[in-house]
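Q: Got a minute? One more chain.
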Amino acid sequence: MKKFAVLLITVMAFSGVYAQSNNVVASFNYLNRGKLDKAKEAIDKAAVHSKTMNDAKTWFYYGNVYLSIQLTDEEEYKDLDPNPLDKAYEAYLKALELDTKNEYTDQIRDRILVCSEQYFNKGVSSYNEKDYKKAAEAFANAAMTRQEVGSIDTLSAFYAGQSAFLAEDYQVARKYMDQVKELKYPEPAIYSILASVYKVEGDTAAAIVVINEGRKVFPDDYSLIIDAANLYLATGQSQDALDVLTLAIEKDKTNPSLFFAAGTIYDKMGNFEKAHDLYMSAIETDPNYFDANYNLGALYFNKAVEIITEAGNLPLNETAKYDKKMEEGKAMMEKALPYLEKADSIQESDQITLQTLKEIYTRLGMMDKVKGVNERLNN
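A: Always. Here it is, folded:
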């Protein structure tokens, strides 16, 4: 009886192993027949049973089942698991670890690449939906999965950094942009994003350094030129800003903002002629450019005030010089008028424009115009 009991126990133990091995085989067969629910049920049992949970084959099939759930177009199987892609990838990693004889290694590596493609597609979908946080995570996973099989995915890493920046996760953005910059990924936006990160962090010096580094790599990239100009303008480095804006204008003579920006610098420097010419170029490029019209009008007005002030400072006995200066001042105000009136027609609610027009109308004795402006200011 004792020998029979031992034999019975042995048979039962063998049956248990066989049953769990059957679950692995059953999962394989169900998967081949497209029965994903049955395949999942079988492989889930095998994955937690002590007799099969440490087999490479179990986790290889587990990955195949969950990857199939991720890829399926059949509605009845789409919701079998809320996160099949992550489970498939993790299963393949475990299978690689257990596959000491390399029975499935090549197949596993191929399927990990499919996981990477799926993560990338998820990233694109989230990015298009403007869910930049999820996009960054998906692109990061796409890069990571390829790295597991010895492949460097700079495209996914770049998009991970770009998405993280748009999600305002600047630490992650810098991590990936530094990575792809070191790998010499040919994308000028790397430097723009890094500069923006430094600027957000308050380190404009580092932002300028990285932008100029990018301009050495991509000397003809227009966006980097504009970024450099904006950084120089923001830090008050007028001459550097002018040098970069001049280069930008050479590359694009159709952008009124470039002429305007350069004009404002010369305006602040007190160079009337240069500022005038650049404002005029901006207006010729875009006649309805409010800022350029206003600034050109203000340039004439300020010059008029300067001349009138000089007249007021003359000795009382220099009547002829006084009259001449006053006429010059009046002429400057008359030149200012059409540009300020044009600015007013573009933005009718701008209070500063109305106040400036009121003063010019008053000085030129155009009282009907003064009355009209007052009515608008009081409304």
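A: The chain is about 80% helix and 0% strand.
Q: Perfect, thanks.
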